[in-house]
Amino acid sequence: MIQTPFRSLTNATKILLPTPSSSSSSSSSSSLRFSSTAFSFRELSLSSVSPKHKGAFFSTLKSSMVDTQKNDPAVEVFEKEELAVALAKYVADLSNKFTTERGAFTVCFSGGSLINYLRKLLEPPYVDSLEWSKWHAFWVDERVVPLTHEDSNYKLANDGLLSKVPIPPGNVHVINDTLSAEGAADDYEARLRELVKNGVIASSSVTGFPKFDLMLLGMGPDGHIASLFPGHPLVQENKRWVTFIKDSPKPPPQRITFTFPVINSSAYAAFVVTGAGKADAVHSALKGSQNSPKLPAGMVSPEGELKWFLDKGAASKL
Ligand SMILES: O=C(O)[C@H](O)[C@@H](O)[C@H](O)[C@H](O)COP(=O)(O)O
C-alpha cells in the first residue's frame, strides 16, 4: 500500500510505487522508498500472442522483467517553487548525460502548464552551462494552428524557453503549419524517420520505434496525456509514430500527437502535474483499479525511467 507521508517532509517526498507483491520497504529521513517487483505498470496480454510468437514473446518478457526493476515510477511531491527547481535539475542532469553520451539531447515538450515549470532552466547555473547547441526540441503533441497562434504549443515553448537559450533554429522541430492535421502528422513522422536514420534520434532496439531521450508530459484532469484522450481510439494506435485528431475534447479540436509506442519507447519520461483538480486522475493513473479502464496517463511506461513531479494538491488523493 502507498503511504502518504507528504505532510511530514519539507522538500520532496519520493515514493517508488509498490506492487501488490512488494516484499520489503525502507525509508530514510527525506524519502520513503518501497522495493517492488516487476510488471507494476507494464500491461502484458498473453491472449494476444500467437503460438508462433510465444518464444519471442517470452524472451521479451524475460528482458522486460529485468528492466522493470528500474521502470517503477518515482513520485515526488513538492511545493510549487521547489518543483521548478527540482525539474530544472532533472532536465539539466539528463542534458549533461545525453550530450556527453550521444552528442545530442532529444527533448519532447507538451503544451499546457509544463513550460512555466521549466523556467529555472533560464537561471544560473543552467542557462550558461547547458549544451543548448546539442538540444533537439520536438512536441509530444501540437495543435494544428499557425505557429504564431496563441494556441500553438511551439509558441508557448518558444516564448517561455526556447527563444531565450542558444538552441540552433534547425534543431527546433516544429510542425508544418501550412498542412491539414493529417498532412502535418504524416510530415512530422516522415521527418522523425529521417532524424532516426541520421542518428539524431535514437532507435529502440526493443520496439523499433524512435527512442527520444526525454518526454516531458502534462496530464489533464481527465487523465489525458499528449492528445491521447480516455476512450478515444487513438489510444490504441500501435503502428503510426505520429497521428492526428480532429475531435479533441480539449480545444482546439485539431491536433497531431505522438502515439503510445513512441511515448513508451523513450529513455526517460517525466510528468509534471499540479493542482487538486487532477488528484483523482493522479490517483487513478498511479494506483489504478482492475475494474476501471486505464487512463492514458496510467499507460505511460517508458523503456527507461518514469518520474512524476507533483504538487501537494495533485498528490492529495494518493
Ligand atoms: O497541448 C496540450 O493540450 C497538451 O500537450 C496536453 O496534453 C497538456 O499537457 C495537458 O492537457 C495538461 O495541461 P495543463 O498542464 O495546462 O493542465
UniProtKB/TrEMBL annotation:
Stretches assigned to the Glucosamine/galactosamine-6-phosphate isomerase domain: 80-308
Class of the enzyme per the UniProt entry, highest EC level: hydrolase
Organism in which the protein naturally occurs: Stylosanthes scabra
N-terminal signal peptide: none
Protein name: Probable 6-phosphogluconolactonase
Listed Pfam families: Glucosamine_iso
Reaction catalysed by this enzyme: 6-phospho-D-glucono-1,5-lactone + H2O = 6-phospho-D-gluconate + H(+)
Gene3D superfamilies noted in UniProt: 3.40.50.1360
Pathway: Carbohydrate degradation; pentose phosphate pathway
EC number: 3.1.1.31
Homology family: Belongs to the glucosamine/galactosamine-6-phosphate isomerase family. 6-phosphogluconolactonase subfamily.
Domain of life: Eukaryota
